[in-house]
Amino acid sequence: MTTKITAAELAVQREYMDKVAGINAQRECPPIAHVHSFGCQQNVSDGEKIKGMLAQMGYGFSESPEGADLVLYNTCAVRENAEDRVFGNVGALKKAKKQNPDMLIGVCGCMVQQEHITAKMRRSYPNVDIIFGTHVLHTMPQIIYEALTTRKRQISIPDCDGVIAEGLPLKRESRLKASIPIMYGCNNFCTYCIVPYVRGRERSREPEDILRECRELIECGCKELLLLGQNVNSYGKNIGTSFSELLRRINDIDGEFRISYMTSHPKDATRELVDTIASCEKVTRHFHLPVQSGSNRILKLMNRGYTREHYLELIDYVKGKLPDVALTSDIIVGFPGENYEDFRETISLIEQVRYDSLFTFIYSPRNGTKAAQMPDPVSAEEKGKWFRELLDVQQNIGCSSYKDYVGKTLRVLCEGEGRTDPSLLTGKSRQNIIVDFDGSKELIGSFADVEITEALAWALRGKIK
Length: 465
Fold this sequence. Notes:
Number of helices: 14
Distance between the termini: 53 Å
Shape: globular
Number of domains: 4
Largest sheet: 6 strands, parallel
Low-confidence stretches: none
Helix content: 25-40%
Radius of gyration: 23 Å
CATH topology of the largest domain: Rossmann fold
Number of strands: 21
CATH class of the largest domain: Alpha Beta
CATH architecture of the largest domain: 3-Layer(aba) Sandwich
Mean pLDDT: 95
């Protein structure tokens, strides 16, 4: 059952913020915090809340852990290499902790929501002072206060279905683009995925809370709203609304801005949703629809809830309704039990859909998921060969699809100077494609019409029209 954190509970946490701020005000120099968020956009959004609360507690911020009074790693559990990086970073802080015993080191987020990870932290990383899970982010002020005043290790990882906490302070990474969680958790239990176990059950924010946040951001000059959820297509099921309705209501807000969203699940992507996107001029023409595999046998083993045929029918409908759409997807190579024939079915699907780009991964087992218990006879070396074959196929398709934009005019949100050439400006089109172009720096933060003159392997180039 979803728990909404009450105003009274949040008031208690504000009192703890004030208490910590009082402690920090007595220091000779304002304390510095280093916060690093690993993984997905949801983690980045949580990181903005972490920084917002820390700012109210009197902390300044540093991009480096060196010399920091508080180091907090907001972790990801989706892939093993992300966990390894956290352990490596925490281990590297042992020397700094010896030199400055008053330094606080914390690990929070999805990774520590797993029992075996927390046990390892308890046993092997005594230099970590603070450990808290995804469901108690709003109690961080109290956790930090207790750590500062008792000098005892603070661990808070309750077993629950998840909460919704409105009104937490935020320190946003950008004034131009903003992430807005519309829901949390997941009910799908794909056999390879740890997310439902670490993020809890699916729960949606009230639409009025979301709309209020959107209006405030637009009034402050924000130009792109990124709606976040593990499966945005199932938004609102527990509160009697729908993602389509939410998109229409945000689209009706006055002003020139763009609406993007992630992530969609094919089993919940309806024709009504596609029709809604086609009718909403502010919604991006970028459809990220993770297929994971082109083999029905593997899709069933993954517990994805759709077939190859259903997916391709949906893609055909999207292309018919949104002729200017850019299609992207996620692919897992080497799922347990996958053979080369299954893999070739994925290749044939990619060749049929012709994605603009793909996010590709070699399967990484996650402790606690069903897939981690499945037989997996194919060697890592063989999976690597399949992976390289997939990349070669997609590179050819992606280069070809980018060439189709040459001669067209795209509406681009100018985000700043060029990544590789500072004499150029860079931004993204409605298709979420990077576009570099000549122009005055006064255009940064606004929309511009850009005629595409050249297609690169990873971006487009153009000129102001």
